[in-house]
């Protein structure tokens, strides 16, 4: 695919954010329009759309990186994104568990709390897993 061809698969941000994409983009734009555009165009439409790693893998890596940064709101988004991209709950748990030897227990415990809250929210809403609508398992995400 050349730099000028649109991707044939759904954009990474479409899968990660699902129906919450307009709300998330509005939130970022309200913080600063340039910031919102940079995140959308560079992070999601350039870096995330690189083909070598599966979106599920990218999202699991993002989860571990966000644990290292101590960023619960963004971690919540990317836990949802990992699940939307086809990761199982067990895979998310293992990605978070990999943080223990490198980041320590406090950050990892905080990450598991974010996961627990997300899973409880899904149970309250009557959903146990986003319904896959394609190869990437694109379901509805809740965003940040």
Automatic annotation (TrEMBL):
For region Disordered, the annotated ranges are: 121-144
Chain ranges of the Carboxymuconolactone decarboxylase-like domain? 33-116
Which SUPFAM superfamilies does the annotation name?
Answer: AhpD-like (SSF69118)
Q: InterPro entries recorded for this chain?
A: 4CMD/NDH-1_regulator (IPR052512), AhpD-like (IPR029032), CMD-like (IPR003779)
Q: Which GO terms describe its molecular function?
A: peroxiredoxin activity
Q: What is the residue range of the signal peptide feature?
A: none
Q: Which Pfam families match?
A: CMD (PF02627)
Can you say what this protein is called?
4-carboxymuconolactone decarboxylase
Annotated organism of origin: Deinococcus arenae
